[in-house]
Design goal:
Elements: E1 2-7, H1 10-27, E2 32-35, H2 42-53, E3 63-66, E4 68-70, H3 81-88, E5 100-101, H4 110-123, E6 129-132, E7 154-157, H5 160-166, E8 179-182, H6 185-189, E9 193-198, H7 204-212, E10 230-235
Parallel strand pairs: 1-10, 2-3, 2-6, 3-5, 6-9, 9-10
Antiparallel strand pairs: 4-8, 7-8
Bound molecules: 2-phosphoglycolic acid.
């Protein structure tokens, strides 16, 4: 079941989503959070940091698994998702760095890394709350449109649209890695709760397609229609067509 929450602007969207994550941590202090990168969640991380700094939120027992990482970028690269998570979130809260996992984009054997990541998620008890953004291709994590839904954590070739969208973070489109490693849809769909956030007019069309169009691997996020507990939080612009 999908519940929609429309908020006035980015700040309100971030506030609402942060409250849901905080509630999850209050209910289960040692929960496993599935975390996302991209520009959309930055406001949420900021709000969670503020709650932590105000003494309202304790991350000491929280564990986390991130959705994805670019292939070939080391954790020190300033566009890697290791770096993003450290700089935008982890270093500002009291999560145990050893409990905060991000797939290894430098792994020699991506198949083995993918299998190990899936095994880790299972060993940690499965994801309690998965935070997702949505790409213009309909991707969640880096699961791009395909002929069938990808299941396990795997290496993926990024869609040209994704490379173009993400080139704003790099010196040029040529510098955007062509491949990434991403959690597949099995771990995402097995999360007990899913929280998807989207803001801005450029997301309005894909949000409508994902949640009101057919369930198809051509729009990977559409699979979320089959999940029992999804909350979609959008701002006015991203929610303009729903
Ligand atoms: P964005 O990316 O938050 O930077 O728009 C979303 C995504 O690609 O999942």
């Amino acid at each position: 079941m999908v519940k929609f929450v429309k908020r006035q602007d980015y700040d309100q969207m971030s506030q609402y989503a942060a409250e849901l994550i905080a509630a999850q941590i209050w209910m289960k202090p040692d929960c496993l959070l599935g975390l996302a990168t991209g520009s959309t969640p930055l406001g949420i991380y900021q709000k969670l940091i503020e709650k932590h700094q105000a003494g309202l939120l304790d991350f000491s027992k929280v564990r986390s698994v991130n959705l994805d990482e670019y292939c070939g970028l080391s954790p020190e690269h300033d566009q890697s998702y290791h770096y993003y998570m450290r700089e935008n979130f982890f270093k500002h809260i009291n999560i145990d760095p050893k409990a905060a996992h991000v797939p290894d984009g430098m792994a020699e054997d991506m198949e083995a890394e993918g299998a190990a990541y899936d095994a880790l998620i299972e060993q940690l008890g499965g994801i309690d709350l998965q935070l997702l953004g949505i790409g213009n291709t309909g991707h969640i994590g880096f699961n791009e449109p395909e002929d069938s839904f990808p299941t396990g954590t795997h290496r993926v070739r990024l869609a040209q649209k994704t490379i173009d969208a993400n080139s704003r973070f790099f010196a040029s489109a040529d510098d955007v890695p062509r491949y990434a490693i991403t959690m597949g849809l099995r771990s995402i769909m097995n999360a007990r709760k899913i929280l998807l956030v989207a803001n801005g007019a450029s997301k309005a069309d894909i949000v409508k397609q994902a949640f009101f169009g057919p369930v198809t691997p051509q729009v990977p996020a559409s699979v979320l229609q089959l999940h029992p507990d999804v909350t979609v939080v959008v701002d006015e612009e991203a929610g303009a067509q729903i």
